[in-house]
Amino acid sequence: MKTIVSALFLAASLGAAHADTAAQRGFIVYRQVCGTCHSLKQVRYADLADLGLPVGDIKAYAAQHQVPDGVDEDGDPKTRPATPEDTIDSPYPNDAMARLANHGDIPPDFSRRALTQRGGSAWIAHMLQSYASVPPDLKLPAGSFYNTAMSHKHIGMPSPWHPGQVTYRDGTPASVPRMAQDIAAFLDWIARPHLATRHRVGVAVLVYLAIMTGLMFALKTRVWRRRKF
């Protein structure tokens, strides 16, 4: 019984630690690369605390961004630094600017991308590693880029990668596959931020049931040993 309980706890701890570490690295990728175009409109800066980010870091990250704050005395729109309670909105002030900077397309919001995308986060990681040189006999539409993961072999987003472009705090080399897998893990966490907690609760319930089963078995054995026939 003790061995089973220990194994359950160990499995839960290792699984959660691995997922959280990859998602934490993925946030660094989002912050330094993806966040320059894509929003997380269903996520507050404060929600990043559940990922293990210190409150001070969250406040500093939020303050780097401006959010609408009504109008001034002349009726012109004004802004203020974001706070942890604000959502992570688009880095562009409006859709027109977003289109102008992205070949006429508006970069999609990433809040639930891992849930809405067919294939989920695994497909996202695969797609982000599937940029390649254009074959000589292929002519791409204007403003598109060759990507073998796409059904038509092209996508409106250029490759965001070059090796070593981000610096991981844990010293992990920032290879293209590593960055792609980490941002996918972060998007998976963002889409289901309480999944790891539910897994830990589930394991705790299994441990509780295992203990209770063992106690009931021991009690039953003791009672029937005393019973005379």
TrEMBL record:
Bilayer-spanning residue ranges: 201-219
Note describing how the cofactor binds: Binds 1 heme c group covalently per subunit.
Localisation per UniProt entry: Membrane
Family matches, as SUPFAM superfamilies: Cytochrome c
Highest taxon of the lineage: Bacteria
Alphabetized UniProt keyword annotations: Heme, Iron, Membrane, Metal-binding, Signal, Transmembrane, Transmembrane helix
Main location: membrane
Matches recorded under Pfam families: Cytochrom_C1 (PF02167)
UniProt binding sites for heme c: C34, C37, H38, M157
GO cellular component, one term: membrane
Claim: Transmembrane is one of the keywords in the record: yes
Stretch list, region Disordered: 66-109
Protein name (record): Cytochrome c1
Classification of source organism: Bacteria, Pseudomonadati, Pseudomonadota, Alphaproteobacteria, Acetobacterales
